[in-house]
Design a protein that fits this description.
This protein is an alpha+beta fold and 254 residues long. Helices cover 29% and strands 22% of the residues. It has a domain of 175 residues.
């Protein structure tokens, strides 16, 4: 559906299934091959979203690793989109339902996704909104902030092979949320693999000073702290100091 909309807005002919290659979706006048990628859901696209700690997480896009690593798929660039749909996703829907909206997020070369994207095998954990889930497939995460923006969709028609080659060499920023960058740094410092000064550098660089919630629930942390206190390995004073950061959640009813 995203490909059909893009072709329509670019005044291109409808898809011809007899001639349509598996490698790409749109062939630009410059012969640059474009693969249209689409994610979807009932919510509009946002460049940042809040979790339960009210700290924004940067939006990401996902690629199937088998497509990116397949050298036989001669795609040059990916055009990333987001499709907002009514909750029941029945076409065409009623007038009272929200319209189907396609957001065009930007583009990136296949070469840069290969070089900078973060490959995650099956079972890897990722944060989504206020929840977590594990990937069922082999994925590559690439963050929206690192895409090349478009002021107008028609601007993609101006892309040349030189733009693609330039993007292959472009240096993007972290393909992690700022929150996950801090979580990783905490872990490395705790393992003695990274100096505390590096954590301070990361905090300063990404301008994130708020308390980052752990992946496991704070109640599990509190349980371990109580156990250490009972074993005489953690003073009551230190326990109370930590509890101000790792806040236990009491049962409040169903």
């Amino acid at each position: 559906m995203a490909e059909i909309v893009i072709r329509n807005k670019l005044s291109m002919p409808d898809i011809n299934s007899q001639e349509h290659p598996p490698d790409y979706d749109v062939l630009l006048p410059s012969s640059v091959k474009v693969d249209v990628k689409c994610r979807g859901g009932a919510l509009p696209f946002k460049e940042e979203y809040l979790s339960s700690d009210d700290i924004p997480r940067e939006a990401k896009h996902n690629f199937f690793a088998r497509q990116i690593y397949d050298e036989n798929l001669k795609t040059d660039i990916y055009l990333m989109t987001h499709l907002e749909t009514p909750s029941n996703r029945i076409l065409p829907g009623t007038k009272r339902q929200r319209k189907w909206i396609l957001y065009v997020c930007g583009w990136v070369s296949k070469g840069r996704v290969l070089r900078e994207g973060v490959y995650l095998p099956r079972g890897s954990l990722t944060e989504q909104g206020k929840t977590w889930f594990t990937y069922r497939g082999q994925e590559i995460e690439f963050y929206n902030k690192n895409l090349n923006g478009l002021e107008n969709l028609e601007d993609i028609l101006k892309l040349e092979p030189a733009d693609m080659e330039k993007d292959k060499r472009r240096k993007g920023d972290l393909n992690l949320t700022s929150v996950d960058a801090i979580r990783i740094a905490f872990d490395l410092v705790g393992r003695g693999l990274l100096d505390r000064e590096k954590l301070d550098f990361i905090r300063k660089e990404i301008r994130l000073t708020q308390n980052i919630k752990p992946i496991l629930h704070p109640n599990q942390y509190t349980h371990l702290l109580k156990w250490l206190n009972e074993k005489g390995e953690l003073t009551k004073q230190k326990f109370e100091e930590i509890k101000k950061v790792i806040i236990e959640e009491k049962f409040s009813g169903i």
